[in-house]
Structure formats: C-alpha cells, structure tokens
C-alpha cells in the first residue's frame, strides 16, 4: 500500500481497487478513484454495468468482494434512494409520516417530532406535495410517491446523497423540479452520485460522469467521458455471467491502474476479453 | 332472559377468567396488527406450534406446573424465533420458509415429548388451555405480559413501523432494524405463551390475529387499528366467556369463535372496504 492511509475529507469517498458483486462474480471490477466532496457525479452505463451495485456498495448494503471504500462521512450519514424501493405502499402511513422518516438521525426512536411539523411541511412543499400531508401513501401516483421520497431525502439533510435512477416513471415537469432540487443540493456543497440513463440529462446537469461497464470505462468531466468512442466501448459489455470464470488473478500490487493494462498479464477471466482495460481516470 | 354479566358477578373463577382474557386482549391484538401489516399473519400460527415442545418438556419435568410450562414454552419459542431470524438474515432462505422448517421440527419434537409420558388428555390440555382454572400466578403472568408488551411496543414503535414500511431505509440510517425485529418476535412468543395459559397454544393465535384483521375494516391508520383491535378482543373475551357459561360450551373455542363472529360482522359491515359498502356504489366526488 503506497498511499497514505487517511480518511478522505468530509463528503468525499475514495474507492480503492473496489470490486463488488454477487456470488464472487464481479459486477463492479477494480474501480479506483475518488468522489470528491461536493461532486455532482452521474453514473452512466448499460444495463448490468454495475451502477446500482456501486451505489449499494457505497451505502454499505452489500459487502466488498475486494478492495475497499473509504468514506469521509459516517456510513449511516449517507442518504440513498434505491431504484426499486422495498417500500410496502399498502402500509397505512401518511405522506407526512413517510417524509418524517428522514428525521431519524436527529430524532431516533423516541425524540418528539412535534417541533418538526414546519420542516416536514417545508420539505413536502419543496417537492410540490403541499396539502398531501394526511394522504395515505398508497393513494399516491408513482411520480408523487417519488416526490415524497425526495422530501424524505431533504429531511435527511445528508452530506452524501446517492440516487439510483431517480427519474424512472416520472413525468417531465416532475423531473425538472427534482433536478432543480438536486442542483440546489449541489449548491449546498453536498456530494451527489446519481445513476442515470438519459444522457441528455447527464450532459445538461452533471459536471462529472463515471462511465461504467462492469469495468470502469472513463471517469471525469462529462463531455470528455461521454465521447462516442467511450460509449461504444461501454456497450460492448456482455450482460451474461461467465459461470466458469477463473479466479481473478489481477495483481493487486500493480495498482494504481491508470496505465493501460498495467499488470494485467496474468489476467484470466473470460468476460474481460470483450473490451480492453481502460484507465479509470483517463479523462479526468 | 339471559344476563351476560351474571356469571361474572356470581362466580370468582369467571371473574378471574375475564381478567386474564382482558389482559391478553390489550396486548396480543396490537402485536397481531403488526403481524398482519407485515404479511406475517400465519407466522404466529407457526410460532404457536413452536412453543409446544418447550411446554411439553416443562410438563414432563414438573407435571401441570405453570412456571415450568411457561419457561419451557418461552425458551422453545424464543429459540425458534432466533434461529429462524438468524437463518433469514444470513442465508438465502426467506423468513416464512426458515420459520416453517424450524416450527415443524419443533412441533414434531413436542408431540414426541408429550407422547413419551402423559395421555391424549394432557396434550389437549396444552393445546386448548385452561381458562377457567387461572390461579393467582397465572393472572400475574398475564398482567405482566400485557404490561411488558404495551411498554415494549411504545418503545419500539417508530423503528418497528419503519422496519415494516421500508426495511432498506432503516438499514441505511440505523442499526436498530435487527434488534427491533428480534424484540418483536420475542413479543409474539411472549404473548402466545401468555395466551396458552388461558386459551391453549392453538387458540392464543385467534385472540392475536382475528381482532387485528377485523380492525382493518374499521380503521385506516395505525392510530385507529390498534385501539379498534383491542376493543374487538375485549368484546370477544367478554362475549365468549359469557356464552360459554350460559350455553355450557368450552371457553377457549367460545372466545375465539366470538372473535371470529366479530370478524365476519366487520367484513360485512365495516366502513373501510366492508362487503356491504362495496355493493352500494357511492356517488363519486368532484375532485
């Protein structure tokens, strides 16, 4: 380990040869780099590229297969909006109560929420859900429900916010509102990482992009990363697992991986032959 | 003319039975409400079977002794809850499957233990309870369980609701999810053990779930569901005991059947999605 071993500054997250995956098969493979404090980073890549997996790893929902994540904030101070929330929408709960869950870190299990009525009302009004406070969550439409989850994110007041395809099934006007909200968070200096499919949105609003295709393809300024060549390389990704893949023999001592194929001589997994190993921060 | 209050005024054992059932009516239904909302209604049925070997072991060691059977039942129930929870949280098996596996093992072990000594009658005793023979220690136990349950639910309320609605969110903001889950399973076991003193292991589930499910037809949110379920359980206990006295019926099944009758009435006439309300199409609103 050549790097000095200190935690990154508040709001930053350092990824060190990070490999995440399922059943030992990597879904994010040897990812190096730093999400700086205050970054507004888009995660882009085809289906199965490891975007959701990376976010799950960042929030600690799945364990690292290899490498590590150094968080500049407490793991539980990271706010995370999953792609398919496990939320039971038939549960008899009001919209205000759902949003109030975001106050957990401050209020915990017992402290009163009596003084927070204005905060909750403010968060709901910020996402255009004023007047919905008493409505049961089961009566909301998909887009309205997503707005309610954003109200909860507002109340979480986190330094780091992870969003997994936050605009799926949301109408254009709501998307515009939510993007304005995310930009305001960015203005506050919060770190934002969002997995997105709409490249137009990414180009218009996200200064930084990480293009993933299981292997990192490029990471840096959005217009450089989203070049036709990089995008073409990303789409070559094969979604299928190689059931017979050998154990990854990539030499960990050969890090950092910012040279093309440095230390990859003994590399033996089948899936990796579809594309060359790129420099992770080549475009930065 | 039948006076529903007469048996309780006349006989001390009926008053004891009523007090015991009322204590249970305040603690078991709120637990049942959460079970129902987590779609774990049948889990309590499984747990009630899981208690059996412990109670049987207590019976084998000490005969029809309340403390021995209670401790045995608690031990077996908590062990199964803990093992099932551990397997669910650390393997691919889901909660219902892991619970089913453990309760079947537990139930078979219980039946085996009972048959080692004891007769069919003893087994029936454990399965169907002794509500008319509640002594002081049984009443203390039921009162204690009721008090413990209500305080524990109050303390766990917020994380428990969050764990029901959005377990992933609770995991990301707090470590409280696991302990909350186990504490809740513990409450289920404690209430079933309490219930089996009065109603027997099988019928204890009835007083836990039927009022909770019936309450769904009367109330929309938790603040209404919990009191409604308690009220239905109290009415069932009172009505069931009174009927069993007047018609000379076994008490445990009478109480649960009373709860069942209230459930069917609620299903028909309850204002929140009851069948009769579905038949009449109310004029829709302007917006």
Automatic annotation (TrEMBL), chain A:
The keyword Nucleotide-binding applies. Residues 266-277 have a biased composition (Basic residues). The keyword Transport applies. Pfam families: ABC_tran. It comes from the Bacteria. InterPro entries: AAA+_ATPase, ABC_transporter-like_ATP-bd, ABC_transporter-like_CS, Metal_Ion_Import_ABC, P-loop_NTPase. GO terms for molecular function: ATP binding. Residues 13-239 form the ABC transporter domain. Keywords: ATP-binding, Ion transport, Nucleotide-binding, Transport, Zinc, Zinc transport. Residues 254-284 are annotated as: Disordered. Gene3D superfamilies: P-loop containing nucleotide triphosphate hydrolases (3.40.50.300). PANTHER family: IRON TRANSPORT SYSTEM ATP-BINDING PROTEIN HI_0361-RELATED, METAL TRANSPORT SYSTEM ATP-BINDING PROTEIN TM_0124-RELATED. Belongs to the ABC transporter superfamily. This is Vitamin B12 import ATP-binding protein BtuD. It comes from Methylobacterium trifolii.
UniProtKB/TrEMBL annotation, chain B:
The keyword Metal-binding does not apply. Gene3D superfamilies: ABC transporter involved in vitamin B12 uptake, BtuC (1.10.3470.10). Keywords: Membrane, Transmembrane, Transmembrane helix, Transport. InterPro entries: ABC_BtuC-like, ABC_TroCD. Pfam families: ABC-3. It is found in: Cell membrane; Membrane. The chain crosses the membrane at residues 17-37, 58-85, 97-116, 137-161, 181-210, 222-243, 255-277. It is a multi-pass membrane protein. Its main location: membrane. The keyword Transmembrane applies. It comes from the Bacteria. Belongs to the ABC-3 integral membrane protein family. PANTHER family: ABC-TRANSPORTER METAL-BINDING PROTEIN, IRON TRANSPORT SYSTEM MEMBRANE PROTEIN HI_0360-RELATED. This is Manganese transport system membrane protein MntB.
């Amino acid at each position: 380990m050549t790097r000095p071993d200190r935690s990154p500054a508040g709001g930053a997250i350092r990824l060190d040869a990070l490999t995440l995956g399922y059943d030992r098969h990597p879904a994010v493979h040897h990812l190096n780099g730093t999400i700086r404090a205050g970054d507004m980073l888009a995660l882009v890549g085809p289906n199965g590229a490891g975007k959701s997996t990376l976010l799950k790893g960042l929030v600690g929902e799945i364990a690292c297969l290899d490498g590590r994540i150094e968080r500049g904030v407490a793991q539980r101070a990271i706010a995370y909006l999953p792609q398919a929330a496990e939320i039971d929408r038939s549960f008899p709960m009001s919209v205000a109560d759902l949003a109030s869950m975001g106050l957990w870190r401050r209020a915990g299990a017992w402290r009163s929420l009596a003084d927070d009525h204005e905060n909750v009302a403010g968060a709901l009004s910020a996402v255009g859900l004023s007047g919905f406070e008493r409505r049961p969550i089961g009566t909301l439409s998909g887009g309205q429900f997503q707005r309610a989850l954003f109200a909860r994110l507002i109340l979480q007041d986190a330094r780091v916010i992870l969003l997994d395809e936050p605009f799926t099934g949301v109408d254009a006007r709501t998307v515009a509102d939510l993007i304005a909200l995310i930009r305001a968070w960015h203005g506050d200096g919060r770190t934002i990482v969002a997995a997105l499919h709409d490249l137009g949105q990414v180009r218009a609003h996200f200064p930084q992009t990480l293009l993933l295709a299981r292997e990192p393809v490029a990471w840096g300024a959005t217009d450089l990363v989203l070049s036709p060549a990089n995008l073409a390389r990303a789409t070559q990704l094969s979604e299928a697992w190689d059931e017979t893949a050998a154990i990854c023999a990539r030499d960990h001592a050969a890090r950092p991986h910012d040279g093309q194929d440095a230390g990859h001589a003994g590399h033996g997994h089948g899936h990796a032959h579809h594309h060359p190993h790129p420099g992770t921060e080549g475009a930065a | 003319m039948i006076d529903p209050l007469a048996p309780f005024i006349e006989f001390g054992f009926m008053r004891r039975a009523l007090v015991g059932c009322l204590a249970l009516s305040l603690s078991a239904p709120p637990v049942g409400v959460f079970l129902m909302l987590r779609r774990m209604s049948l889990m309590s049925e499984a747990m009630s079977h899981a208690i059996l070997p412990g109670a049987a072991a207590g019976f084998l060691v000490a005969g029809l002794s309340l403390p021995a059977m209670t401790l045995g039942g608690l031990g077996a129930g908590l062990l199964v809850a803990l093992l099932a929870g551990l397997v669910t949280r650390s393997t691919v098996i889901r909660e219902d499957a892991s619970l089913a596996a453990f309760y079947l093992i537990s139930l078979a072990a219980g039946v085996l233990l009972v048959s080692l000594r004891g007769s069919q009658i003893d087994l029936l005793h454990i399965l169907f309870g002794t509500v008319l023979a509640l002594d002081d220690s049984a009443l203390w136990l039921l009162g204690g369980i009721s008090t413990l349950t209500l305080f524990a639910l109050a303390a766990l309320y917020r994380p428990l609701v969050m764990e029901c609605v959005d377990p992933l969110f609770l995991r990301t903001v707090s470590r409280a999810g696991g302990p909350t889950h186990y504490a809740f399973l513990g409450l289920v076991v404690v209430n079933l053990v309490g219930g089996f003193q009065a109603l027997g292991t099988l019928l204890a589930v009835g007083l836990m779930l039927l009022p909770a499910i019936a309450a769904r037809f009367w109330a929309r949110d938790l603040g209404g569901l919990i009191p409604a379920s308690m009220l239905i359980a109290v009415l069932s206990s009172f009505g069931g005991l009174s009927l069993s006295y007047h018609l000379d019926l076994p008490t445990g099944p009478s109480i649960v059947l009373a709860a069942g009758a209230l459930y069917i009435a609620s299903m028909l006439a309850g204002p929140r999605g009851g069948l009769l309300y579905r038949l009449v199409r109310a004029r829709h609103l302007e917006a």
